[in-house]
Amino acid sequence: MSSEDVKTNQSAVSTIVNLAGEAKLVQPPSLELLSICKSLVAGGVAGGVSRTAVAPLERLKILLQVQNPHNIKYNGTLQGLKYIWRTEGFKGLFKGNGTNCARIVPNSAVKFFSYEQASKGILWLYRQQTGNEDAQLTPLLRLGAGACAGIIAMSATYPLDMVRGRLTVQTEASPYQYRGMFHALSTVLRQEGPRALYRGWVPSVIGVVPYVGLNFAVYESLKDWLIKSNALGLNEGSDLGVTTRLACGAAAGTVGQTVAYPLDVVRRRMQMVGWKDASSIITGGGKAPLEYTGMIDAFRKTVKYEGFGALYKGLVPNSVKVVPSIAIAFVAYEQVKDILKVEIRISD
Description:
Layout: H1 3-25, H2 29-53, H3 55-66, H4 77-93, H5 97-130, H6 139-169, H7 181-192, H8 201-228, H9 242-271, H10 280-283, H11 295-306, H12 315-340
Helix pairs in contact: 2-5, 2-12, 3-4, 3-12, 5-6, 6-7, 6-8, 8-9, 9-11, 9-12
């Protein structure tokens, strides 16, 4: 065999190896679609499981946020939960959870999927800009990816969040009863118009940037730090256990919700504006609830008439709820992804 033949064969082998390597990186459309579906399923399951686990605290938080200050019925976490149990029974603790899950399952699915896709896109741009193909996401870049994911997911499911808030607030004594999510949607559309379904959207967008952004940034950065610093005896490439992931998720939830909570209070109050047959929780025994012309007006009137502390009404049950909720959501997502064997790695 001549030297030219040897070179030709080596070139052919090299070409085949390169093509094989590229084939591993580029998945067929059917596999890519399957991977997307599995990622969406994992996110949906994570959202449904985490929110159902803390549904009573979620309902109490909303009741504390919107109740009329002239007629206080819920005064603290334990008293509030006992009052709901006494006046509405066990079902009262989970009122609005069906609608919440109908909202949070697609919201969580879109949020986790959007975060992974945004992270990949941002990482690619970052590597192109720095010229370093081995560069990894920084906490600030993770914050940006999380913010993008939060805005996309929240905007896609906002009308469901709006009617969920009203379903959660209404009681047996409410003048008019929404019979369920679709009835509430149609009633709001008919009586208040389509714009009412997005009432409070602006503070939601502003609030979701630090909330979801910090959740993802803190969670992913803590995981990386624990592995790279060998804090728990982990080596590079090791996987964190469920307990450690829960702790990282709890820290992420605490930071995110504390920063964004005032915006959540304002958003929830704005969602109640225009409700003709408002719940007695809002009307406060006949006293008309405050009307807000916008986000700034809602902030101003809340602080003026109820003090700065009103912006943190419901923070305690929300903290008790958010910490395990975010932790469970992150762990459930990763566990379901492992079960479905979804091979999605942001660093790829």
